[in-house]
């Protein structure tokens, strides 16, 4: 292959990235006399008749997005039956390579995220949703310029497109997929913002919010499980930055920031800010407000917090170790693209997700490092097995319309789940439920100062249980989420007073 001339123009010089489906070559454009990166499929990939269409679509998508923070695609073609893409050559490394050495300084993380926001804002303005924002697709040039690459699974947000793979599949990288993307629901700009939140989380902690288990198990967690607060893994982060991460990781798209432009503005000064990020929820893709504010570490609304009411997670599997290797000096980051059958995961209510229409199934060309992983529809969606409840039997079973009652129901459900898993003893579970009951009663009767004091004591108790190992990281996050929702119901003038015993 070395020395091969593609269509009489692009001379292949050396492989600079190799993966399960494609190789990336350093090449020379003989017509313009410049070095480029050429992405070329292996023989097995070329056998798929839809591949040329995917390459063509990626080229056309990128051509619409001329921006300094987006890797340029120059050309697309087929040589001797093999499709190829010609892209801008980046002298540098991927963010995935950088994260292999550990978390970043918050100021550097913010600088990188700001430039990613610039790229996403340009894409979203053009009506394009990337759908695979992750460290491997974020390239950092030697001069410091950040560029987003690999629009192979991007789709138009404003019009339906014909599906390019089998129906009822979802394509993306599970560790960075938004809940609506996992479930095959419509996606928009806020889907990319969730992924950006996962990237920020990884830059600040060294790992994305969910890492345990197979791709299907991680996808289940994206839908059903609250992330461990970023400050629990990296204490001392500026509150504004931690609050922004929590807002980006909201399970409901309407609870996230409205746009990449808004996130870009929030990032300014966030690495040293002392305030708390507050964003208005968005009722739709174009909305700039209208939802309840998101404060501090509360990424999930009460309606999505009753984890035990949802389907069981997939059965544990042996953990896979290893890291996708970023491709230095290329216009293509390493990618681990997972393909899920939609029936493999229960929806937000715990029932198997329905297959999307063709408008929602425009899918991917796997990137250079690994083949797509097709996961059979085997994840259980049965309701949880019953366990003796350590709580009174009159606890709510439905989420009431009253926000305090809804949060109380979510809190009791979270405690019940931790008791059922064996982490909490019966007496500790009763204690937590009693504290939540007191908090709800105080809020209901308007005794805000007492509620603030109860809340402070409750948080201190949860921190203690987490520190001593009674609550796992995930259990701590699950119970802390409704706790923070209670805090959102407190007026800013409430004072905490002394801690409760």
**Model regions low in confidence, pLDDT < 50 over at least 5 residues:** 158-169, 280-313, 315-344, 351-401, 492-501
The class by helix and strand makeup works out as alpha+beta
Q: Kindly state the mean pLDDT as a whole number?
A: 73
N-to-C span: 73 Å
Instruction: Please indicate the percent range of residues in DSSP E strands (runs of 2 or more).
Output: 5-15%
| Major sheet description | 6 strands, antiparallel
Number of structural units classed as domains:
3
Give the strand order, joined by hyphens, for the main sheet: 1-2-3-4-6-5
Binding site for ATP: 39
Protein name: non-specific serine/threonine protein kinase
EC number: 2.7.11.1
GO molecular function, one term: ATP binding
């Amino acid at each position: 292959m070395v020395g091969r001339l593609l269509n009489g123009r692009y001379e292949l010089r050396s492989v600079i990235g190799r993966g399960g489906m494609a190789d990336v070559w350093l090449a020379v454009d003989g017509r313009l006399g410049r070095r480029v990166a050429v992405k070329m499929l292996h023989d097995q990939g070329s056998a798929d008749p839809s591949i040329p269409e995917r390459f063509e679509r990626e080229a056309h998508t990128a051509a619409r997005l001329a921006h300094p923070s987006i890797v340029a695609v120059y050309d697309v073609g087929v040589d001797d039956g093999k499709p190829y893409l010609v892209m801008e050559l980046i002298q540098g490394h991927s963010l995935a390579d950088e994260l292999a050495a550990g978390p970043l300084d918050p100021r550097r993380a913010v600088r990188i995220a700001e430039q990613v926001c610039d790229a996403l804002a340009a894409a979203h303005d053009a009506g394009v949703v990337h759908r695979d924002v992750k460290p491997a697709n974020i390239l950092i040039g030697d001069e410091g310029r950040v560029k987003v690459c690999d629009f192979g699974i991007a789709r138009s947000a404003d019009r339906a497109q014909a599906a390019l793979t089998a129906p009822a599949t979802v394509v993306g990288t599970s560790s960075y997929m938004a809940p609506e993307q996992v479930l095959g629901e419509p996606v928009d700009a806020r889907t990319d913002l969730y992924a950006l939140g996962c990237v920020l989380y990884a830059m600040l902690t060294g790992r994305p919010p969910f890492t345990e288990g197979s791709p299907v198990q991680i996808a289940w967690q994206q839908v059903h499980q609250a992330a461990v607060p970023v400050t629990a893994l990296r204490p001392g982060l500026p509150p504004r930055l931690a609050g922004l991460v929590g807002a980006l990781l909201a399970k409901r798209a309407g609870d996230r920031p409205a746009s990449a432009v808004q996130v870009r503005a929030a990032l300014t000064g966030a690495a040293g800010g002392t305030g708390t990020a507050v964003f208005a929820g968005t009722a739709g893709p174009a909305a700039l407000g209208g939802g309840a504010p998101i404060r501090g570490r509360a990424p999930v609304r009460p309606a999505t917090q009753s984890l035990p009411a949802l389907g069981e997670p997939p059965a544990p599997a042996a953990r896979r170790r290893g890291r996708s290797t970023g491709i230095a000096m290329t216009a293509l980051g390493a990618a681990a693209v997972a393909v899920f059958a939609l029936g493999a995961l229960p929806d937000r209510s715990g029932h198997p997700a329905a297959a999307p229409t063709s408008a929602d199934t425009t899918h991917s060309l796997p990137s250079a490092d690994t083949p797509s992983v097709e996961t059979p529809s085997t994840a259980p969606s049965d309701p949880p097995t019953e366990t003796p409840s350590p709580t009174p039997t009159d606890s709510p079973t439905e989420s009431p319309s009253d926000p305090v009652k809804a949060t109380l129901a979510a809190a009791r459900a979270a405690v019940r789940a931790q008791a059922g898993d064996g982490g909490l003893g019966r007496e500790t579970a009763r204690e937590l439920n009693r504290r939540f009951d007191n908090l709800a009663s105080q809020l209901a009767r308007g005794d805000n100062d007492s509620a603030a004091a109860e809340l402070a004591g409750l948080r201190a108790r949860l921190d203690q249980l987490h520190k001593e190992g009674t609550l796992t990281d995930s259990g701590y996050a699950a119970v802390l989420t409704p706790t923070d929702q209670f805090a959102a119901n407190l007026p800013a003038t409430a004072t905490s007073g002394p801690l409760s015993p």
